[in-house]
Amino acid sequence: MTTTNTDIFKTDNPKIKLLLTMGELEFGNEWPDYIAQYGFTAEDISELLCVFESQQLLEVNDGPEMWAQVHAWRVLGQLRAEEAIEPILKQLESLTEDDDLALDELSIVLGLIGPAALEPLQQYWNEVHEGELCYEVVADALAKIVEFNPDTLDQVIEIYRQYLQKPIVSFISLNGILIGNILDLKAVELVDEVHQLFQLGCVDLTILGDFEEVELELGLRDKRKTPPLMWNGEELFISERIESNKKLAEIEKWLKKYADGDAIDSLSELDGFFTAIACSPKAILPSTMMPVLWGGHDSMPVFDSHKESEQVVKSLFDYYNKLIDNLESKRWQPIFKHYKNDTNIILVLDWCNGFLRGKRLWGNIPSNMADYVSGNLVPILYCMGSSNFPINARIKIEEVKHFHKAIEEGIKNVYQIMQQHRAVEGDGLTVARKEPKVGRNDPCPCGSGKKYKKCCGR
Predict the structure, then answer these.
(1) Would you state the pLDDT for residue 192?
(2) Which Pfam families does its entry note (predicted)?
């Protein structure tokens, strides 16, 4: 955040002094008319910006002064102060979830400033910034500009269209908020682009629901074709192949039952994790990978019985070995998730998250193959919105589906070159035993860190 070191408390401006003493206002209440009630004018803009950017006030934790910056940005909005656009945009990237008042109100301020903010907002949106929140404020600000200036509707719709054609696929909350703004604007002309975003699994369904809800809201559908979403804790996206494979369904059931905290809790994420283990440049022992699977040594599950413990471990190892068999025979395909009401809507984030979790166990990639491996993993980094990949070098939405397919091809390439490397190094395939039977004094394959005789071997 850009701040100024001007000593705000030494101001001679009585209106600024008043601003420092106004104190807290009720959240959600209408703003005072600062111009009519307190006499603020354009001549005060310079000092208002000093208040807004003040480092002194950021360090105040109690008293009426801590609310002065809120009053300042409200006044700047009511004055339609174009000079405030750049300082506000500079602040956005520093906002966190705790800055709820700023997240709610800065979009209103930019909306009040009006059409002069359109070009800077569009430019900001097209640039690379850290985090999702700053983009959400910009999306809301554009809608607010239309609310206060209806003649800007076509311009804002075009800005939204350009984003939808090259979206940030990993920012599902942003995409949901954006679609909410499109509904508020009744922008029916964007329905095709919105539909594509839903089909890619790039929208947080908890914000507005699914695409059928969008169609209903826009008057394009009289009633639902599929059952409505039920917000009862049931997952809206399910791992592929679960419904047709009892063994896979059983594994996911155990993951849901025993996953806690940072543990892997879906078959899709497990598939990504095990794929990374199989593609490692070195063999990774079960005693190393299992604690990572369960979220750490302190999060290892306490099974209901010794028999169930053996069943879970055996099922996991059987699944892992089958995955390697499929990679070896080139029949492997990733297990992504699909939306219950429409199997054409694919969600890849869980799988990618699992893969990157497993990749952290790789260690250093040999320098002679590092560029090749990294190039083949670009689709995963893109879909995850990794900070190591320029996510805002956005690709066209019709090309995103190719990225999903490219994940599969990239993994096959990485697996092949890693196996060649391990053959040369004398480090064979990472294959788990078909049965979780080990020596009594060996580390338990469940990953607890205990000896087998003190854990699952009891």
Answers:
(1) 94
(2) SEC-C, UPF0149
